[in-house]
Amino acid sequence: MAPFEIMGVVNVTPDSFSDGGQLADAAAAIRHARGLVEEGAAIVDVGGESTRPGAAPVPLEEELHRVVPVVEGIAALGLPARISVDTMKLDVARAAIAAGATFVNDVTAFRHEPELAGLVADRGVDCCLMHMLGEPRTMQEDPRYDDVVSDVKAFLEERLAAAVAAGIREERVQLDPGIGFGKTLAHNLELLRRLAEADAGVEHDLV
User: Fold this and answer.
1) What is the pTM of this model?
2) pLDDT at 200 over 70
3) CA distance 11 to 23
4) Cα–Cα distance between 65 and 18 in angstroms, integer?
5) End-to-end distance of the chain based on CA atoms, in angstroms?
6) What is the CA radius of gyration of the chain?
């Protein structure tokens, strides 16, 4: 994997951060994915469950209904980009991989469904593990850290070790400090200011 790649986001949800509801139709989402790749995206990330603060969980069948047709449609285009599925659910990831995804982006870093790590290992796909306090519904309720950079770094090191222990090759793992996920504005700015420090000693560059 190249050190720096652009990931384009395709939110097939009614309630995501910036584009919720704009791509609820599969055909619109597929067109958007094509446009993202034409603009330089090397990865297209398809998500069917919002992770905005306060977001409610999406039932499995609904997430499958939102995500799988879009992944299939993007794969059918034969675009020069990898397809990622943004999910914390094992069954959604399994169906998305069968439909053409080769990257799993799990905002819980395999904590929600630990079996997801085994699926990633078995299928030989890439993954991204993100730091987040709690879950989307609660993550912005007075988040606190002893030192945000040290705490996030320790968390990501532990999750990387867990992924490798599950059989995922280290070079297939990307790490995300989770800007905006369970962090105040001050925490976010501190992470950005000290990003080089957070990256030092971690096996993989932070994304």
Assistant:
1) 0.88
2) no
3) 7
4) 21
5) 12
6) 16
Which residues on neighbouring strands pair with residue 86, listed in sequence order? 47, 105
CA angle 107, 174, 96 (to 5 degrees): 60
Alpha helices in the chain, H assignment, sequence order: 26-38, 60-77, 90-99, 115-123, 148-165, 185-193, 195-199
Checking if the pLDDT of 131 tops 90, the result is yes
- What are the tens digits of pLDDT across the range 32-91? 999 999 999 999 999 999 887 777 789 999 999 999 999 999 999 999 999 999 999 999
Assess contact for 74 and 95: CB atoms under 8 A: no
* CATH numbers and ranges of domains, the chain: 1-106 (3.20.20.20), 133-207 (no CATH)
Other beta carbons within 10 angstroms of residue 55's beta carbon come to: 18
Of 83-87, 134-138, 140-144, the range with the highest mean pLDDT is 83-87
Could you give the count of Cα atoms lying within 13 Å of 79 in the half-sphere of its Cβ?
A: 27
Report how far apart, in Å, the C-alpha atoms of 84 and of each of 33, 53, 55, 125, 195 are.
Answer: 11, 22, 21, 10, 25
Query: Which amino acid makes up residue 58?
Result: V
Burial 43-54 (b: 16+ CB within 10 A, else e): bbbbbbbbbbee
Please give the C-alpha separations between residue 132 and each of 10, 13, 93, 138, in angstroms, as whole numbers.
Answer: 21, 20, 20, 10
* Cβ atoms 181, 191 nearer than 8 A: no
